[in-house]
Amino acid sequence: DQSRIVIDVAVPISAYTEMIHYAREEALKEKEITAYIFGHAGDGNIHLVVGTGRDNAKAWEAIDALNSRVVTKALALGGTATGEHGVGIGKRKFMPAEHGASLEWMRKVKQLFDPNGILNPGKMFPD
User: What is the Rg, in whole angstroms, of the alpha carbon atoms belonging to the chain?
Assistant: First the structure.
């Protein structure tokens, strides 16, 4: 019984081939997972779909580490931790690295428009 997640990043189009090559090589290092890549070359969006057995804790740890490496590379190439799928719980830990000091302004804007914290609570900002 397999389960999958999508590691979704976007990079400038000039870095697209480098990012695809990097994601492929990193995914191939992980022997207990399956993976494939597709994306939208016109906007720099890359989807690395990875999966393994639902109960394979070791492989899920490897997938989490793979996600971190892929996102870190995308950020280093001037890209974003999120492509078209948004931040969500899986990407919120990368928000400080991507947004730096502006993350606090983002929090303030969210607080202004969502003072009760009912719109997507806990999804965007790291604790």
Answer: 16
SS3 8: strand
- Amino acid at position 111, single letter: Q
Please return the burial class of 20, using the count of CB atoms within 10 Å of its CB with bins 0-12, 13-18 and 19+. Answer: middle
Q: Do residues 5 and 51 lie in contact, with contact meaning Cβ atoms separated by under 8 Å?
A: yes
What is the Cα–Cα distance from 54 to 58, expressed in whole angstroms? 11
pTM score above 0.90: no
Amino acid at 56: N
Kindly report the CA angle at 107 between 103 and 108, in degrees rounded to 5? 115
Instruction: Please tell me whether residue 57 adopts helix, strand or coil conformation.
Output: helix
Say which amino acid occupies 49: V
Q: In angstroms, how far apart are the furthest CA atoms of the chain?
A: 46
pLDDT in tens, 43-70: 999 999 999 998 999 999 999 999 999 9
Give the C-alpha separation, 15 to 79, whole Å.
Answer: 9
